[in-house]
Backbone:
């Protein structure tokens, strides 16, 4: 089930790597300090790497949801944490109800959670939660899925978090691509690419095992 997804994600990372190699081969790219244009392109490349990472994590999350729904799993058979995904609209409804309706809305949620009907997905919280992807986001996704055993070494965790922050700084205008790119030489960019690529595929492998072993069942 994950084969096509793996090929898609791999192609995205390969394209990103090709772009980095292209930038390294540009005239004057190895000068120190690098020309303004080279530093700006480094910053923009970081935005590209972040985009590949965010899209990959979102596709992995979608694949897991598709795996569960295609298995026609009864809500009552799911691990409790997954109810926060599959019954999110009913959870959200509790936020806006008053004293007169809170009991009724709570009963709706509890009945849906204990239902023997197959789960379907409507109004998932995942798209909003996966818009700013870093190590903490991946850990949150692991918690929602009850996916145990996935950890990220502290140094790598910081690098993933920094990638998101640098992308956001450029996207929201707090920094320019030039100011971000001047902090990274090409070896630093390559190291960040390697870490990101490895962690995304390691996470995907864990998710594949999770689905194959039907670890979503309580």
Residues:
């Amino acid at each position: 089930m994950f084969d096509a997804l793996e090929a898609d994600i791999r192609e995205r990372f390969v394209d990103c790597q090709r772009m980095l190699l292209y930038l390294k081969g540009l005239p004057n790219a190895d000068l120190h300090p690098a020309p303004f244009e080279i530093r700006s392109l480094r910053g923009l490349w970081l935005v590209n790497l972040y985009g590949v990472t965010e899209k990959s994590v979102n596709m992995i999350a979608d694949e897991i949801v598709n795996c569960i729904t295609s298995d026609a799993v009864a809500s009552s058979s799911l691990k409790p944490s997954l109810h926060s995904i599959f019954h999110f609209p009913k959870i959200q409804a509790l936020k806006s109800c008053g004293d007169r309706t809170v009991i009724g809305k709570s009963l709706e949620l509890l009945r849906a959670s204990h239902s023997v009907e197959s789960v379907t997905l409507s109004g998932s919280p995942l798209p909003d939660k996966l818009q700013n992807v870093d190590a903490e986001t991946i850990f949150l996704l692991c918690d929602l899925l009850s996916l145990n055993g996935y950890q990220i070494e502290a140094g790598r965790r910081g690098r993933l978090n920094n990638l998101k922050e640098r992308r956001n700084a450029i996207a929201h205008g707090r920094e320019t691509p030039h100011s971000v790119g001047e902090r990274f030489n090409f070896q630093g960019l390559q190291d960040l690419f390697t870490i990101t690529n490895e962690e995304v595929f390691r996470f995907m492998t864990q998710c594949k095992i999770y689905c194959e072993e039907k670890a979503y069942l309580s």
Notes: The chain has a mean pLDDT of 88.
